[in-house]
Amino acid sequence: MFLSEPHDGLWKQDTAKTMPKRIAFLASEAHTAQTARATLIGRYGNRPADDADVIVALGGDGFMLQTLHGTQELDVPVYGMNRGTVGFLMNEYVESDLLERLDSAEEEMINPLTMTATCQNGKTHHALAINEVSMLRQGPQAAKLRIWIDGRLRMDELVCDGALLSTPAGSTAYNYSAHGPILPIGSDVLALTAIAPFRPRRWRGALVRKESLVRIEVVNPEKRPVMADADSRSVRDVISVEIRSEPSVGHRILFDPGHGLEERLIREQFV
Fold it and tell me: Of all helices (H) and strands (E), which one includes residue 36?
């Protein structure tokens, strides 16, 4: 069973202030990540993820998202160490003192978005997204989208390369590249951001309540096909997508003290 509210204390408080002994090491296919995994297993041992106190993910942010999705049925926190190209969700890679670092780590609890995409053939697809759900033009012509918020039409026509709805945790990823706002962790809003908007020209996007139901419809999907993407899991030829936060699923992420998501989000804005 997952918690929907953030943990206020350190994760070690949930383990009676004892260092976790059972660690599951997972790594991306990159050579540096696989080498690190072998070294750490030789030093600390290894357990299956479903029999571990903590999962250590070795790779970049993409692998961290993959790990969180793959272990979401387990009530086990994930501690990432950067062995990839991007490491916003990762801690610094250090082989020594891992048990002490895990024992003092601070926990962040984040909720994903749930996406329901309906395709031209009538099929529906469901997926969870920790960062964002995106709708992207599938061909050379711009997409035409219609946006509803909580059953109320808010934009009759958005001509663009696409649009996305981002969580606070994902607001520094694709959302930020598309000039969307960075959202503080724990804020009760989501960022709705256009990708290369043509009409309305330079539309700045919107903030919506975390509890809102966002529905995006494709106008003229046969001529202007659109795909939907939830954390790099794509569905083609969609005609509509419904997105909302999923409070019943919580992902537990561990960070070194003073380097949690809140600090990283603030620091990103002053680079």
Answer: helix 31-44
